[in-house]
Amino acid sequence: MAILEEPIKQVLALRNYIGGEWVESKGESVDVVNPATCKVIAKVPMSTRDEVDAAVKAAQEAFPDWRRTPPLARVRCLFRLKELMEERFEELSRIQTMEHGKTIDESRGETRRGIENVEVATGIPSLMMGYNLEDIAAGIDEYLIRQPLGVFGIIGPFNFPFMVPLWFAPYAVATGNTIVVKPSSEDPISQVKIAEMVEEAGFPPGVWNIVHGGRTVVSEMLDHPDIKGICFVGSTPVGKNVVYKKCGETGKRVIAQCGAKNYLLVMPDADLEKTIAASLTSFFGNAGQRCLSGANLVVVGEGLGEREHDDLHRKVSDALVNAASKVRVGYGLDKSVQMGPLRDQGKKERVTGFIDIGVTEGAKLRLDGRDVHLVGDWPHTCFLNPTVFEEVTPDMTIAREEIFGPVACIMKARSFDEAVDMIHGSPYGNAASIFTRSGKLAREFQYRVQCGNIGINIGIVAPMAFFPFSGMKNSFFGDLHGQGQEAIRFFTESKVVIQRWF
Amino acid sequence: MEEKSTTASAIISFAENLEDSSARFYRELADRFGNDRETFSSFANESEKNKLLVTRTYQETITDALEACFSFKGLDQSRYLTSTDLTPDAGYSTALKTAIELEDKASEFYFCVAEMSRSLLATIPRAFKTVAERRRNRKSVLKALLDKVSQK
Q1: Which of A45, A124, A337, A442 qualifies as a cystine partner to A25, CB 3.0-4.6 A?
Q2: What ipTM, to 2 d.p.?
Q3: B137 touching A, CB under 8 A?
């Protein structure tokens, strides 16, 4: 099938967006590479500490006026931003495919999910309201108001370059705060496009700033005394040991959404055809580079004899291998393609390293994604096909560690309780799903499992914009989550007023 | 034979191309056959609206298709293609017959994808069904025009 037209025709030289100006960085530039074609599509600067400071200063200066801007006027900027995103929907989606590698359907889904957050944040005049009570004592009333705090920092991950910063940014600015966004240096173009639309939508200079870069930028944002809070999505080691710790030391609010190892339980009464279809998207969507991706599929033998359990396991395993072997892998701008490349060669090598370990530790490799076959003639550099392991046991590395690639591990548990124990044996608690027709078991699963996002016959438990993106244990550090009402509470201070007039 | 699984974007592209080529075709008919210019122009305009409806519906609900792991399994788009290239000397009745074939296959395509996408959010099959019905109605209009030509 023909490749859709690429919206990026020449190498882009990306700049920071500070105080409403597009500013060239003094830092050195690194290449942004399209992982499917291996062509350089942009140069992104590694900004300096001074440049972060300039962005924070611009945001700090914009804050007093912006917070005094009526909420309705603030959301008019968001309405215009949403309209611009709709107008440029296709361009934005194709850019994500070019800079990240995901398929065009996945990119369009990401664009939609990003826009939905802007839409929800436009409800701020209602969502941000406080509450009151008259006559708490004679002639005395008490009320609560929500006020913005100042400047927030948003540190984006590579796996959803467009959407993830939008889990936070629209709520932050709608509530009257100002922001400094650091996009992932691996795929920063989407955030530049958003900033262009922010400018066009008429946000005052300094309200929404972009600073490109790497560790130096993150470190400066974490240290900066004028940043009141940080939103971070990335790995657990960085989220826990750097971001959360540093925010604790510097008194910043923090949302740190981190790694995962998500379990999918298949009960004997599950609708197998639908379960396999859901598992396929869960394991291999976005090439497995999602913190909500399925990792371990557990075939549960609750109420079955050993032979019946083996039969069920064989059936599930064969069906998944068969379906996974048919997934069409290639450049995401080819509309027939169902899975794109990994973001870069290093990430591919990390995944193949896990496959090697799986084999060494004795798991049975049913489908080897290292045997790359593509739709179209593309360099194999970043590509893998789906991989399926079976006979995986909970002690194996591939069952415990986050692979972040298109690898499915099939396991067995004799009972529901044993399967729940497996989930709880993981240090992560991002998502878990059960496939069953039993309401009782589903309720039990929802009640007991210590994960922030629970799926019942759902493969990818992605909360909509009006619900928080939850997470527990080593998958989340902080108190309040991104998106919806929790984001509004995160970005505002609750102030209580007790009033009496003499 | 292995069952084909077609991505949502491939189906939407097919629908968009179908509406584009239909619009072009009817503009050509409007230019060539002035007596029924208004009818053909209205079909061309409607095709542009159809494209907008399908594209918008897809863009607004693509996450549903993804989360429902949806694909149009077994759909063979080539069944619904009609060549709309008219030779310079093609007469009015030839043009009408081509148009009827186009509408026949197009409405069949839209009814088929509407049925296949019934498990998704209601807006998706509804959009396909709306376009399918519009195109079926066109077929009736075209048939009436052809009958008139035959009676002369």
Answers
A1: A45
A2: 0.77
A3: no
